[in-house]
Write a structure and sequence with these properties.
single chain; alpha+beta; elongated
Length: about 55
């Protein structure tokens, strides 16, 4: 999680178990820390290792 120095914007960068990475694009900067966490969590769950069940 990162916060803009002069803003209230948050963004995330994540590398998943399948070795794919992402970083929030400028159009998906999050207004809160919790929103940034939720965005990263959604990405990580979508890119989990094959054969593992995602939580319901």
């Amino acid at each position: 999680m990162h916060q803009g120095a002069d803003t209230d914007a948050w963004w995330n960068a994540a590398t998943a178990a399948d070795h794919q990475g992402t970083e929030s694009e400028s159009e998906s900067i999050h207004r809160t820390y919790a929103d940034a966490i939720a965005g990263a969590t959604e990405y990580l769950l979508a890119h989990s290792l094959p054969g593992r069940q995602a939580p319901a």
